[in-house]
């Protein structure tokens, strides 16, 4: 029996950015020859230091950056931008402020993805907003507050509600807990884990923090200089990371006390 089609696949993906003025361009290789697949209901963790290519890879996965070579498949088909227009893809960033307009009540920002996709009935929309706020552990009354009136953790919950309101089938969390206090981080990690189990979307969880990544991921890819140096199950990773670079990352958390998770 063949295994089910992965939600997302990359084959030999590479990205080269061109910087500088025409005629004096410098090519910067951000990603080289990455192969990956993420199944429905699976979270792939991406760890690596700043500049290793994690965000670039996420942007390819979301169809926002065209790979210089290689291919991207979504649910077995060559990537079609219509999946993005339909709301099948979502992203949660490090700074929830990017997803929440400071001049609008939070509920307006949460509902916006439905408005732009033509959902007309105001009552249905508001019902969905209330449902999503409950899902992310927020009091429904916060829909009428402005982002500036919320704590950092509440804002990130709000951004997650906005990301999930179209019921995406693939979600990227790009350093989504990195700016939060340690105690709030673990709450948001628990929330991500619960929502992923409940909704069953495929996910890419990006962090420079291996402990956080291990907590929410089924498999972990370690990135360095635009390539994967190791891909293994989170459990395997816990026991014995193989690559020396992974071991070094691991050693930095093994020595930590009072870890977030
Ligand atoms: N828009 C861009 N134009 C040119 N170079 C970029 C751009 N975005 C990222 N880079 C470069 O690509 C490399 C990978 O960056 P990035 O994917 O943001 O890594 P990470 O998310 O792991 O920090 C870095 O060297 C970065 O400077
Ligand atoms: Mg990044």
What does this structure look like?
This protein is of the alpha/beta class. The protein has 2 domains: 181 residues, P-loop containing nucleotide triphosphate hydrolases (Rossmann fold, 3-Layer(aba) Sandwich); 73 residues, no CATH class. Helix content is 35%, strand content 25%. The protein contains 9 helices and 10 strands. The strands form 2 sheets. Strands 6-7-8-3-9-10 form a 6-stranded mixed β-sheet, sandwiched between helices. Strand 1 and strand 2 form a beta hairpin. Helix 3 packs parallel to helix 5 and helix 4 packs across helix 5. The chain is globular.
Question: What separation lies between the terminal Cα atoms?
Answer: 38 Å
- Strand fraction band? 25-35%
CATH topology of the largest domain: Rossmann fold
Multimerization state = single chain
Structural class: alpha/beta
Question: What kind of sheet is the major sheet?
Answer: 6 strands, mixed
In round numbers, the mean pLDDT is 91
Low-confidence region ranges: 257-261
The level of helicity is 25-40%
Following the backbone from N to C, one meets helices and strands in this order, namely EEEHEEHEHHHEHEHEEHH
Supply the CATH class of the largest domain: Alpha Beta
Shape: globular
List all distinct small molecules, including ions and cofactors, that are bound in this structure: adenosine-5'-diphosphate, magnesium ion
Describe the strand arrangement of the main beta sheet, using strand numbers.
6-7-8-3-9-10
Radius of gyration, whole Å = 19 Å
Number of strands: 10
Number of helices: 9
CATH architecture of the largest domain: 3-Layer(aba) Sandwich
So, the CATH homologous superfamily of the largest domain?
P-loop containing nucleotide triphosphate hydrolases
